[in-house]
What does this fold into?
Amino acid sequence: MKTICFYFQVHQPFRLKKYRFFDISEDDYYYDDFSNRNLMRKIAERCYLPANEMLLKMFNEYGNQFKVSFSISGIALDQFEMYAPDVLESFKRLAETGNVEFLSETYSHSLVALKSKEEFVQQVELHSKRIETLFGQRPKVFRNTELVYSDEIGEMVAEMGYKAMLTEGAKHILGWKSPNYLYYNAINPKLKILLRNYKLSDDIAFRFSNQGWKDWPLTAEKFVGWLKEADAKEEIINLFMDYETFGEHQWKETGIFDFMEALPHFVFQETDYQFGTPTEIAEKHQPVAAFNVNYPISWADEERDLTAWLGNKLQNEAFTKFYELQQYVDKVQDEKLKRDWLYLQTSDHFYYMCTKFFSDGDVHKYFTPYDSPYDAFINYMNVLSDFEERLKLAPKKDVPEVESINIEELISEYKAKLDKLEAQKAKTSEVKAIEKTKPKAKAIEKTKPKAKAIEKTKPKAKAIEKTKPKTKAIEKTKPKVKAISKTKKVPKAIDKKKVGGNSKK
Amino acid sequence: MKVLMFGWEFPPHISGGLGTACYGLTKGLASYEDLELLFVVPKAHGDEDQNAASLIGANDVVIKRKRFNYQDFWKDMTYIEVGSVLIPYASPDEYERLVSERKLEQSAITETDDFGRMNFTGKYGKDLLQEVTNYAYVAQTIAAENEFDVIHAHDWLTYAAGIAAKKISGKPLVIHVHATEFDRSGETVNQTVYDIEKMGMENADKIITVSNLTRNIVIERYGISPEKIVTVYNAVEPQEAEKKQFKKNVKEKVVTFLGRVTFQKGPEYFIEAAYQVLQKVDNVRFVMAGSGDLLRKMIRRAAALGITNRCHFTDFLRGEDVTRMFAISDVYVMPSVSEPFGISPLEAMRSNVPVVISKQSGVAEILQHAIKVDFWDIDAISDAIYGLLKYDALSDMFRTYGKTEVNNLKWENAAGHVRNVYYDAFNEFMQKKGVE
It folds into this structure.
């Protein structure tokens, strides 16, 4: 059985307005409403609305034989709500057909996976909930921002219970291997990996209207001809692209919509391919090998690495400075600050600071609202200075170090643990005394030394961590300690790997 | 190919863009073995060495001819000095000095300002025009007595000479536009100068402009056909090995304006930006290095804003002081209202100083590692300065890439383009001649 998988990325950043240094501590609104609204409306008219209509038409024609998948960033959903509720409605109609799978990603379309596991998990959860509320389906497959992937990221995703994850079929990772099979994560084999066929994907996404291309004009018939040429044993063709390919990157006049509409017809007529969603593929196909990725990859540029976002000093500085604020964000409750925190970490802000386009790549120029990467950096850092100031002045949460989301859960966990300890050390009456006299939150703090006591037994626990369920329970009682140590490790590792000599640390 | 060039004296004798550009270009041309140069400069003769063979040209102008040996870089150059008061771009002080020297020496003097702009008041104006004419006569004499294939004239004061040489020799003329009357005078152009410029451009077989900005002015304001205009960007000499380590005398960061304090350079935007930045940043000092007709006004404005304790005026700097100024600077700002090219940001970048330049400068067309702003946009200028002072990663980036970028702008490359223009001019001219 052979499957074609269409996956579309839908994302629009909240572009920042011109934010001068004298605005710092004067103005706490950072977004360019005018251009965000205008761009959203323009793209809605040119792409989202007609493309959704096209898909709806195709679902009507082919029933559930034709399927696609989407990942819509939380930032894009917010903007749909603000500026294009009609687009949101049309996505909902698509969802109702049952032929569309919605994937999970970070709410902010951020690169947080490289920085903090805790924050990453939170953002994914936030996004997942949002998708479920809007479209009535809980995502089962994960797609990281710009298909950024490494073994460690895959491991985190597997831990969160996802079945499969999408990434780039990067040539430098695959070598002689083909992207047209299902793979699995090198650390946790339970997580299936779907790899983008960049040749066929880019034929549609980038080259479709290029008249200098030897295969121009690309017709559905020709494309299906290429599918037929593929090795008979190959199982999956993953066509991953920006949804804006339809009508925005490739204008309607290029015939991109006609191409897409005609494609299933030729696929069914001339090949034995079916269309499937990532979840179906993960269920039906057998993975053939582990996909080993030590250094993060992405789907961007020739290099297929992180250099579009974290490739120079400006980007690294802004990125580091931003995530240094995490400690303050955790302590505040202000909704506006929380929202800014999400909007400011969108990967696009770092993309605008990329200096690679000095030497190549019109792609970068096409996307940036700034005259130069330097302007992008100055503007972002001004905003960040104000944001930092606001964070530091904001009133702190009553309960220290505990996220509001799972506070009840944590309290009960700690309670359970306390009971256990009590049972173990019946003599120590002081623990009881504390519990009775002090409010709950403080009790939690006090349990900390106890957690340390448990830590002593940890060497043993670690060795058997994977086999024994009860040690897991112990681990859960001190999530804070672990998470902190992890967040410190992750960025360092990335610095060394990614940035090499450029890194300050 | 032999080139008859009407150029200008080299630094340090002449300060400012034209002399520097002529020097760099000449040096660059020297790397092409097929080129030979007959170099003619106007020079106000005083007490110089009279041993060199001299000849008297038309109108009793002193002409000196000598074999030129400038740091051994030019193998085969004939250098001719013509007695004349033509002074390009001299700084006001220097001009004053020259003028007073000349006053002692002899009679009437033509007053030109730092752009070589004539002041047609009273008896002086006529004399500068007279000088231009005299120079053209001499050019004719030189052209008649020498063999060459192409004529190359730099800026309007020598256009007449170029045309005269072309008339008598029948060789093609290339003129090099380093600035136009619109750059010097804004909208109040001097009609006589404009006419001379236009005449030069119309008579030229090829025109070299120092930027597309200037190229557009030549097309739009002088009505010249775009086909014969070629932009060749200036370059900068690589930094000589650091002879001296300059110690910074103040602990604060230093933001510098270095240039003539005249309308074209936009000094008031620098002062206003300084005021804005000082509202937010303590740890900074602003330096306006240069002199000019707006200097006093600038000092008064700074005083009115109450920032004179943080804003310093050095007056005109020369030689080592310039190097020193760059060495202690953290940011260089060039808010020029109109700048045909603008070599000084390149010098700053060469000294590892990040630059903020106006979009209204020719140099903005080629620089990538610079912050570009509109000269009138004081908010943008101050924001750029603030960013460079506050965010270390930004200045780090500039230090890393700016110097490399500047070092890649080589005079040899610029000279290569000029050489192509020579050949084009020569070939097209010969073709035309053949047809006729």
Observations:
- Chain B has two domains: 2-235+411-435, 253-407.
- Residues 411-435 of chain B form the longest helix (25 residues).
